[in-house]
């Protein structure tokens, strides 16, 4: 299972993208440096993003920040720089028989997928399944479109690295 998590209503990259594309953020996802709600990406990046899950989500966010620091991240990473990259790899058969664990994971995954949907148009998935399916669709279709602002930023970064 791959679980790439951001613990706020939006992630930093979404605010950066909105700023580069000249778009506003959705209401209720960010605060400016004075603690006032904002839809302005620049003001949001100078302030804070709304944590999901209330105080429990905030606690999870603190845990994730600490794991990032364990992986080398500074206490407060600069914009899109020096983020820690924490990877947890486990060998399940040290704790339980491999076949038994694989069967339990399959049973759990199927039960999750069969859960009643909040939105009938959106299937219930395990982490990373949506991204994997979308990537496969895009590759089968011959690629994907990239916003001009994003392409410019990536091109500039590539030229800077050379």
Describe this structure in words.
With 162 residues, the protein is mainly alpha-helical. It has a domain at 1-89: Ribosomal Protein S8, Chain: A, domain 1 (2-Layer Sandwich), CATH 3.30.1370.60. Helices cover 46% and strands 2% of the residues. It contains six helices and two strands. The chain has helices spanning 12-20, 41-46, 54-70, 98-113, 129-140, 148-161; strands at residues 30-31, 48-49. The longest helix has 17 residues, at 54-70.
Write the layout of secondary structure elements.
Layout: H1 12-20, E1 30-31, H2 41-46, E2 48-49, H3 54-70, H4 98-113, H5 129-140, H6 148-161
Antiparallel strand pairs: 1-2
Following the backbone from N to C, one meets helices and strands in this order, namely HEHEHHHH
Strand portion: under 5%
User: Which term fits the overall shape?
Assistant: globular
The CATH architecture name of one domain reads: 2-Layer Sandwich
Question: Which structural category do the helix and sheet elements fall into?
Answer: mainly alpha
Please give a handful of descriptors for the protein shown.
162 residues, mainly alpha, 2 strands, 2% strand, globular
């Amino acid at each position: 299972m791959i679980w790439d998590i951001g613990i706020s209503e939006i992630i930093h990259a979404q605010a950066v993208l909105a700023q580069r594309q000249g778009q506003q953020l959705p209401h209720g996802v960010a605060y400016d440096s004075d603690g006032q709600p904002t839809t302005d990406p620049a003001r949001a990046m100078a302030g804070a993003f709304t944590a999901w899950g209330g105080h429990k989500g905030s606690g999870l966010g603190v845990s994730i920040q600490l794991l990032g620091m364990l992986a080398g991240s500074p206490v407060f990473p600069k914009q899109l720089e020096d983020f820690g990259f924490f990877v947890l790899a486990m060998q399940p058969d040290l704790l339980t028989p491999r076949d038994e664990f694989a069967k339990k994971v399959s049973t759990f995954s199927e039960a999750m997928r069969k859960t009643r949907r909040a939105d009938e148009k959106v299937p219930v998935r395990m982490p990373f399944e949506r991204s994997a399916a979308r990537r496969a669709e895009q590759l089968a279709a011959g690629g994907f479109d990239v916003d001009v602002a994003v392409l410019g930023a990536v091109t500039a970064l590539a030229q800077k690295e050379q």
